[in-house]
Specification:
The protein has about 260 residues and is of the alpha/beta class. The chain has helices at about 25-35, 50-60, 95-115, 130-145, 175-185, 210-220, 220-230, 235-240, 250-255; strands at about 10-20, 40-45, 65-70, 75-80, 80-90, 120, 145, 155, 190-195, 230-235. About 35% of the residues lie in helices and about 20% in strands.
Length: about 260
C-alpha cells in the first residue's frame, strides 16, 4: 500500500467508509463491489450481524480494505411519526450494560480478525448519546483509533444518504451528481464520507432500496473522474492511523 504523509499540507484526503459490513450477504456484496470497482476504502463491521463471518473472510482476502467496528446497540425505525426500537441489544441508558456490550463486541472483533479495529463508529450514530459517548470514546483512546465525529483530524460528511431525518425518500442525495458536488465541496485535510452500499432488497431495515443506488453512484465513472480532476487522494483509516497520535475531542465538542 502507498504510504501517506501526515495531512499538514494543502491536500484533500478522502476516506470513503461503508457502514453495515456483515449485515447480510447482499450488503457484503455491495460493499466489496464499491471497494473493487468504486471509491470505498474502508468498512465498518457489525460483529453481531448474520453475515459477519463472511464479511471477515472477504476482508482478509483484501488486506488494503481497512475494517473498523460498527458498534451495534440497537435498531430504530421511523414510523407513525416517531422513532421506534425494533431490535433491542442493550439498554442505551444503562452505562454498565453499554460498557459490557462494547467490550463484548470489541473482543468479538479481535477474535474474528486477529487484530484491533482500524476505527470505531456505531449503528445509527448511537455513540453520540450519553452514556455511550463516554464509553466508546474511552475505547477509542485505549486503542488509539479514530472515533467518528470525535477525531479532530477528520471532517465528517454524512450527507451522501438517501433519506430525510424521518425516513422519507431522498433519492437525489445519492445520485452521482450529488456525490460529485460533495467532492467539490471537500475542505483541505482529511474527510470521512460515510456510505451504505448493498445488493440486498430483502433487508428488514428502513434503508433498503437506497443501497443499490449507492453502489451505482460509488462506482460511477464520472465520480472517479471527478476525484482525479479535483486531485482528491483516497486513503483509508489504516493510512490515517499510521500518520501519528490521536487526541479525540470531548463528547460535548463532537456534538457541535
Amino acid at each position: 500500500m502507498k504510504e501517506h504523509a501526515a495531512p499538514t499540507d494543502s491536500r484533500r484526503l478522502l476516506i470513503v467508509n461503508a457502514d453495515d459490513f456483515g449485515l447480510s450477504a447482499g450488503t457484503n456484496a455491495g460493499i466489496i463491489e464499491a471497494y473493487e470497482s468504486g471509491i470505498v476504502t474502508s468498512a465498518s463491521l457489525m460483529v453481531r450481524a448474520p453475515a459477519a463471518v463472511e464479511a471477515v473472510a472477504l476482508s482478509l482476502e483484501r488486506p488494503s480494505l481497512s475494517v473498523g467496528l460498527h458498534i451495534d446497540l440497537g435498531e430504530w425505525m421511523y414510523r407513525d411519526s416517531g422513532w421506534h426500537l425494533i431490535d433491542f441489544v442493550v439498554d442505551v441508558d444503562d452505562r454498565i450494560a453499554v460498557q459490557e456490550e462494547v467490550a463484548r463486541q470489541l473482543e468479538w472483533f479481535t477474535t474474528l480478525l486477529g487484530r484491533s479495529p482500524s476505527h470505531l463508529d456505531s449503528h445509527q450514530h448511537a455513540h453520540r448519546q450519553q452514556p455511550a459517548c463516554d464509553v466508546v470514546r474511552g475505547a477509542a483512546e485505549r486503542l488509539g483509533v479514530s472515533l467518528r465525529h470525535y477525531d479532530p483530524r477528520i471532517t465528517y460528511r454524512g450527507d451522501f444518504y438517501g433519506q430525510t431525518g424521518n425516513g422519507q425518500p431522498l433519492g437525489e442525495a445519492i445520485a452521482p451528481s450529488s456525490l460529485i458536488r460533495i467532492l467539490e465541496d471537500l475542505p483541505i485535510g482529511v474527510t470521512e464520507l460515510s456510505c451504505h452500499p448493498g445488493r440486498d432488497q430483502n433487508l428488514n431495515t428502513m434503508y433498503r432500496r437506497e443501497r443499490e443506488r449507492e453502489v451505482e453512484a460509488l462506482c460511477a465513472p464520472e465520480v472517479r473522474a471527478a476525484i482525479e480532476e479535483l486531485e482528491i487522494e483516497l486513503i483509508s483509516f489504516d493510512d490515517l492511523r499510521a500518520t501519528g497520535s490521536l487526541a479525540p475531542t470531548s463528547c460535548a465538542e463532537g456534538l457541535r
